[in-house]
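Hi everyone,

Forwarding the result from last night's run.
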Amino acid sequence: MTRPLRLDAPVVENRDEGGPHRRLRLRVADWPGFEPGQFVMLSPGARSEAERSDPLLPRPMAVYRAEPCDGGALVEILYKVTGRGTTLLAEARTGERVRMVGPLGRPFPAPAPERPVLLVGGGTGIASLFELAARAADAAPVRVLLGARTAADLMGRGDFEALDLEVGLATEDGSAGRRGLVTELLEEALDRQGAASVYACGPTGMMRRAAELAAAQGGSCCHVSLENTMACGFGVCLGCAVPRRPGGFALVCCDGPVFAAEAVAWAGLP
């Protein structure tokens, strides 16, 4: 695991992606690299001479991808504007600085060579899967399944399609792909091809169903990336605890965010 950085990173781009979605690119000196599934903590908006205390806490954001640049990297984040913190982040302009800590957390394990890989993303959880899709394609057949309420909510859709992988879409209103839930696509894929390595990130109900489907398909394994509210990102505040099976708790920030699905006590999650 690489040692996380703590720095104020200049904004290179903070682009409107349509609706409430944004694409943030930060120039990060001495970027140590990252593994798929890791995340960073970002300040709620650009830094200024006066420290902001409202909102006080940073926001966890999945690292979408990173591009080498001048001895460091352009680190890219896809995010959705949902509240005061992300609204302030959306207002950060080119040249302003955003406080960043990362990369943090335990990543997705590499898929077994030659074993089919199914990536299942829902809503903002889609952002956690892009780098895994890009890297896994070199070692195994990969199918990406993306789901959201509407076509406009399918974050990064064009990026996934540009990877030249098989991409299945599901929207609740039928505006893109299949009308319904992305887990319905997963069930069909598992029925058709048998055992696979399943990786999921999205709403809790979606991940729980993905875990159930993988467990029912003998020989399949499933890893999930949990999306919990957290204040620190490295195990101090204890605010991101989740119940484990058969007992006890784990911290999403440092024991995760990626867990083997069978290790999560799903009934104890909201």
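The chain has five helices and 16 strands.

Cheers,
N.
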